[in-house]
Specification:
Number of strands: 12
Order of helices and strands: HHHEEHEHHEEEEHEHEHEHEHHE
Strand order of the largest sheet: 4-3-5-11-6-12
Strand content: 15-25%
Low-confidence stretches: 294-330
Distance between the termini: 35 Å
Helix content: 25-40%
Radius of gyration: 23 Å
Largest sheet: 6 strands, mixed
Shape: elongated
Mean pLDDT: 84
Length: 330
C-alpha cells in the first residue's frame, strides 16, 4: 500500500508551536527562525484546508481541528523517540505529562512519588501544577488532575476522591472559636468560589455572612493555608489535603462541620489514546487513594467536637466502582 505524503516538517513545527502556543518558543526549540515555523504551519493549514490556530491579542489559541491533531502528534513523536532510544541502546523511558491542581499535588501526590518511581522506574513523570485552570490540549498533557463536577467538554474523567471543605486555622485562633458565630471576629480566607463560607455557615447553623465582612480571596489553597498559619485569618479548605499540617499541630480544625462542592478527577482528552504508562499511573493512583486512611476518615478530631454536628462520612469508591465512574463528556 502506498502511503499518502506526510508533511513531517510542517507537523513538527505545528506540534512545537501548539505545545508552547507560541511560534517564537517553537522556533527556539527547533533551532529555526520564527518565520520558518509560521511558514510551515501555513503550509499545513493549506494542505488540510482548515486553520489550526486563532491569532488573538494574547497569543495563539488552538482551533477545534488543532486540538484534535495535537494529541495524535504528541503520542506519535513520543513513540518514535522511544523506538529510536531502543535502537541506540538507551534505556527506554516512557514520559507522562501530568497537570495537577496544586492542593492535590502537595497534599497527596508529591509525598508518594518516591514509591511510584520504585514501582515504575521506566516512567518519567513531568508534573506541572495549576490553580484548576488548565488547557490539556495546548499544554500537551496526558492527564490533568482537576477539582470539580467531572464534566469537562471533550474529556474522559475518572473519579478519584471527594474533598470536603472545613474550617482550618492557627492554634491561637482556634482556641477563640467556641461556636460558628465567633468566626465573624476574624478575617475569612477562601478560594475563588464565592459560596464556600455561605454554604459552610448554613451547614453549621451559623449566622449569615455580612456583605461587608473582610474576606481575602486566594487562587491557591496552599497559599491560603500559609496565610492561615501566619494568623492572617481563618481558612476554609480540604482538611484531607492538609493532614500533615493538622497532625503536626501547625493548623487546627475547630469544628466538625464540612461541605462538599466537588471532587478530584483524573482527566484526559477523549481523543487521547491511553498508553501503557497512562494506564499504570491511573491504576496506581486509584489504588493509593483506596489504601489511604487519611482520605477515608477525618485526619484529626476538631478542637470543639461537641459544638457542631458533623456531616455524613463520605465513601471512597472501590477500584471496580472507580472504573464505572468514568464520565465521557461531549
Amino acid at each position: 500500500m502506498t502511503r499518502r505524503y506526510i508533511p513531517l516538517k510542517s507537523l513538527r513545527a505545528f506540534e512545537a508551536a501548539a505545545r508552547h502556543l507560541s511560534f517564537t518558543h517553537a522556533a527556539i526549540e527547533l533551532n529555526v527562525t520564527h518565520s520558518a515555523v509560521s511558514q510551515q504551519v501555513k503550509l499545513l493549514e493549506d494542505q488540510l484546508s482548515c486553520p489550526l490556530f486563532l491569532r488573538v491579542p494574547r497569543g495563539l489559541v488552538l482551533t477545534p481541528e488543532g486540538e484534535h491533531l495535537l494529541p495524535a502528534l504528541n503520542e506519535s513523536f513520543d513513540r518514535i523517540a522511544q523506538l529510536l532510544d531502543y535502537f541506540t541502546g538507551r534505556k527506554v523511558q516512557e514520559k507522562l505529562k501530568i497537570g495537577v491542581i496544586g492542593t492535590f499535588a502537595t497534599g497527596f501526590l508529591l509525598p508518594r512519588l518516591s514509591a511510584f518511581y520504585q514501582k515504575f522506574p521506566h516512567i518519567e513523570l513531568q508534573i506541572s501544577t495549576n490553580n484548576n485552570r488548565v488547557d490539556v490540549a495546548a499544554e500537551g498533557l496526558d492527564y490533568a488532575i482537576r477539582f470539580g463536577s467531572g464534566a469537562w467538554h471533550g474529556t474522559a474523567a475518572l473519579y478519584l476522591c471527594d474533598s470536603p471543605l472545613t474550617v482550618l486555622c492557627a492554634p491561637d485562633i482556634a482556641s477563640q472559636l467556641k461556636q460558628p458565630s465567633d468566626l465573624l471576629n476574624f478575617t475569612l480566607l477562601r478560594s475563588y468560589r464565592r459560596d464556600e463560607w455561605t454554604a459552610w455557615l448554613q451547614q453549621a447553623g451559623g449566622p449569615q455572612l455580612p456583605p461587608t465582612h473582610p474576606v481575602i480571596v486566594f487562587d491557591s489553597s496552599v497559599t491560603m493555608l500559609e496565610a492561615a498559619q501566619a494568623g492572617v485569618g481563618v481558612a476554609i479548605a480540604p482538611a484531607r489535603m492538609f493532614s500533615r499540617l493538622i497532625t503536626s499541630g501547625q493548623i487546627q480544625r475547630p469544628f466538625t462541620s464540612e461541605i462538599s462542592l466537588g471532587s478530584y478527577w483524573l482527566t484526559r482528552l477523549q481523543s487521547r489514546v491511553e498508553t501503557s504508562a497512562m494506564r499504570e499511573f491511573a491504576q496506581w493512583l486509584s489504588a493509593e487513594l483506596v489504601a489511604s486512611v487519611e482520605l477515608v476518615v477525618n485526619t484529626e478530631l476538631p478542637v470543639n467536637t461537641a459544638l457542631v454536628t458533623s456531616s455524613e462520612p463520605e465513601q471512597v469508591l472501590s477500584a471496580v466502582e472507580m472504573k464505572a465512574a468514568i464520565i465521557n463528556c461531549r
